[in-house]
Backbone:
């Protein structure tokens, strides 16, 4: 027997050690009754840190992530005719791979997708380090996305020029209302910004203790001294990320457990400057997709 996408509240007796700020939902995806217990995933929400979804396996996480993105796409297309989505690079792209499979490849209205990058390495679009190349090779070359709806950075420019050019491109699309405008800032309001998180807690190309975290005026900025190679990058700023209608942060593996705890748990002021913790959409929704390893140091889920 297959049981798909059911939800059941955990008996309160099982939650004795859990802070009551959370509403826990026990959720099984695509699993047989016998394997139910093994395939369970936890889902909870916590004030301004958003919703946290913890998965037993990468396969289950990928399915839930694809479901979630497909749902947001449907809602956005219904509400304003398009789905504007900003991608990151890294492990996120492989975790989005299920979007290329049934049913999503047929059911999602790909013609309405407009694709941007929350951060990009300043390298040629054909370079192995390019976030555009990664997404193209593994995602949108396999999907019927309209080529003119894909907005890579201009790779013939310097980092500074590329950031300013990208901002211009986004501004034009805001002007013609392909991209919505935030009503809490003068920033674009992307329907979805998808972020990975590094073991140091960086998101997009916003690195810990970097002056880029202070940028309040620009939509897109650049760095030339990234602690993670390659050094030259452009990135959405925190005001843009925090103006999105939806932000998803995906982190997997034990190497990210400390950063995940610092980003999500109710911890001391020393964590407040961690880039992943500074992701705090003003009116949008924040959802964390973690596997067990990345969630292993979360106080509230242990
Ligand atoms: O350099 C980058 O790293 C982060 C995290 O990558 P991951 O492989 O650890 O998931 C990524 O989100 C960002 O887009 C990328 O430029």
Residues:
């Amino acid at each position: 027997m297959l049981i798909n996408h059911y939800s059941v509240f955990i008996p309160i007796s099982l939650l004795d050690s859990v802070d009551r700020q959370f509403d826990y939902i026990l959720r099984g995806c695509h699993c047989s009754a016998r394997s139910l217990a093994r395939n369970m995933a936890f889902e909870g929400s916590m004030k301004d840190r958003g919703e946290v979804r913890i998965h037993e396996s990468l396969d289950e996480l990928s399915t839930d992530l694809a479901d979630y993105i497909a749902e947001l796409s449907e809602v956005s297309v219904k509400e304003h005719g398009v789905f504007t989505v900003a991608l990151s690079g890294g492990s996120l792209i492989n975790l989005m791979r299920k979007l290329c499979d049934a049913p999503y490849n047929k059911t999602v209205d790909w013609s309405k997708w407009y694709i941007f990058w929350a951060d990009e390495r300043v390298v040629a679009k054909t370079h192995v380090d390019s976030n555009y190349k990664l997404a193209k090779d593994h995602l949108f070359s396999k999907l019927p996305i309209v080529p003119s709806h894909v907005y890579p950075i201009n790779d013939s420019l310097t980092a500074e020029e590329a950031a300013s050019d990208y901002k211009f491109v986004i501004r034009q699309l805001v002007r013609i209302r392909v991209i919505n405008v935030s009503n809490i800032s003068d920033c674009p309001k992307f329907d979805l910004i998808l972020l990975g998180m590094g073991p140091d807690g960086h998101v997009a190309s916003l690195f810990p203790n970097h002056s880029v975290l202070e940028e309040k005026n620009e939509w897109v900025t650049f760095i030339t001294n990234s602690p993670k190679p390659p050094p030259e990058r452009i990135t959405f700023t925190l005001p843009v990320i925090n103006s999105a209608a939806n932000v998803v942060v995906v982190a997997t593996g034990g190497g990210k457990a400390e950063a995940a705890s610092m980003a999500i748990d109710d911890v001391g002021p020393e964590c407040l400057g961690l880039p992943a913790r500074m992701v705090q959409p003003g009116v949008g929704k924040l959802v964390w997709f973690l596997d067990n390893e990345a969630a292993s140091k979360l106080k509230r889920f242990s």
The longest strand covers residues 40-46.
